[in-house]
Design goal:
single chain; 299 residues; alpha+beta; Alpha-Beta Plaits; 4-stranded antiparallel beta sheet; 4 strands; elongated
């Protein structure tokens, strides 16, 4: 208990004497861990969005012109079901009225999008699912070039190209974020190390006296280690608040404003991330302290 009080007092005194360097180290720890948390939160949201979008891989939407007759529709449906690469059990037809009702349900919170519409602008369509997503190009080609009523098709859409672009953006986001975070963590460790070095230099006479009177190596080291750990913990707590604000004021609002993208966060990720950030702060502080002690304190 006496040692703990002594270590705590020496740690606080050292931080007070080197307050500017300590604040700089805490700030860099907070920024590096905060950006790490933001990258993880953004990565999770984009990942969920891509997963939700990937469910449409292998799905083709065939939009019909308004003038298509029932006979043409049945002929087209029979042709699509007969394509070898198409799962005939997963070919569904959606009328114009059904499309409008689905639109109203999806955007029930935004009635201004549809309540003043006098004529239904949405087309009838077929939703076609390929047996294997890699055959989606073949399916699109056969529908475009071989169907019995080419004049009845207005547009054909497939999600594969959009998903590929999303994955490219996601990959770049992850790479850039990882590089920035690694760089900032390295700078944070160096700053913590510099703070400890200054503390060691300021107390070099006291350390020499302690060695002469028989203090153990770890008794001398612990206040410096705790100083680095405390800087890491304070920085990590600030980072936790940064990540929390980022989620509430940016990600949640973005998800609400763009509901059709389905950018939800994974359940429980925030709590796991908070624990990981605090643990990361302790590790950064410890590494900075150990690096300084091994290099500048010969005990």
């Amino acid at each position: 208990m006496i040692n703990l009080k002594y270590f705590s007092r020496e740690t606080i005194d050292s931080l007070r004497k080197n307050v500017i360097l300590a604040i700089a180290a805490i700030a860099v720890v907070a920024v590096s861990l905060g950006i790490l948390g933001m990258v993880v939160m953004g990565w999770d949201m984009f990942s969920n969005m891509i997963k939700n979008t990937e469910r449409k891989v292998g799905e083709v939407d065939v939009f019909l012109k308004d003038g298509v007759t029932e006979a043409d529709r049945f002929a087209l449906e029979g042709y699509i079901r007969g394509i070898a690469e198409v799962d005939p059990q997963k070919v569904t037809y959606k009328s114009k009225d059904q499309a409008l009702e689905e639109f109203k349900t999806r955007f029930a919170d935004n009635p201004e999008l549809w309540q003043y519409v006098k004529e239904n602008p949405l087309p009838a369509s077929f939703t076609v699912m390929a047996k294997d997503p890699k055959d989606i190009g073949v399916v699109v080609s056969k529908i475009q070039n071989g169907n019995p009523v080419p004049a009845g098709i207005d547009e054909i859409k497939a999600a594969s190209s959009a998903i590929e672009r999303l994955e490219n953006v996601f990959s770049k986001f992850r790479t850039i974020g990882s590089v920035v975070v690694v760089g900032l963590i390295f700078v944070a460790i160096l700053l913590v190390s510099v703070t400890i070095q200054v503390a060691i230099f300021a107390r070099r006479r006291e350390v020499g006296i302690m060695k002469l009177v028989g203090a153990t190596n770890w008794f001398i080291r612990w206040p410096f280690i705790l100083e680095g750990v405390l800087e890491g913990i304070i920085g990590s707590i600030i980072a936790v608040f940064m990540v929390g604000l980022f989620k509430v004021y940016i990600l949640d609002r973005l998800s609400t404003a763009l509901p059709f993208l389905r950018m939800g966060s994974s359940s429980g990720l925030l709590y796991i991330l908070f624990i990981a950030i605090v643990a990361g702060g302790i590790i950064i502080g410890s590494l900075g302290s150990v690096f300084a002690l091994r290099r500048y304190l010969e005990v």
